Amino acid sequence: METNGIPERPLDPQAVRSAEANLLPPEDEQRMKRMLEALCDATRVKIVQALSEQNTLAAGDLAHVISRSRSATSQHLKVLRDLGVVVASRKGNVVHYSLSNDLPGNVIENAVAAFSALKTHAA
Question: What pLDDT, on the 0 to 100 scale, is given for residue 104?
């Protein structure tokens, strides 16, 4: 018997329990969803590629690197800041950004690093 197309009884209950244990709890699933949504924008991926914990860039320089206006860059940085992916530090009138070494920063940085395999190498 099925409810909404979902079988009521699994064929292998032990395997199902094991698989369910791997799933994130609902609140963590929401964080994952927001992180994945952040990765679905090429501009935000470029920002993460340009930054590292050691490589900080002023907001204007970052806009130059990713070829976006300061305003557009600021909007993308806000999304990444709200997720905890980037951190800002003020030096006088200039705000510098770097990747956070907290969990969200590490998750996004590792995901973006995987995209490096897409680089085409000159033969």
Answer: 82
Strand partners, 90: 95
pLDDT band for position 53 (50/70/90)? low
Q: Tokens standing for 95? A: 């705000």
Q: How many helices (H) and strands (E) does the chain have?
A: 6, 5
Phi, psi for residue 99 in degrees, rounded to 5:
-75, 145
CA-based nearest residue to 107, from 25, 41, 43, 34: 34
Tokens found for residue 98: 């770097």
Domain boundaries, the chain: 26-117
Fold of 26-117: Arc Repressor Mutant, subunit A (1.10.10)
Mean pLDDT of 7-32: 90
| Cβ contacts of 65 within 8 Å, gap of 6 or more | 46, 50, 57
Q: Which residues contact 62 (CB under 8 A, 6 or more apart)?
A: 47, 50, 51, 73, 77, 97
- The token pair at 26 is 């609902």
Is the pTM here over 0.85, yes or no? Answer: no
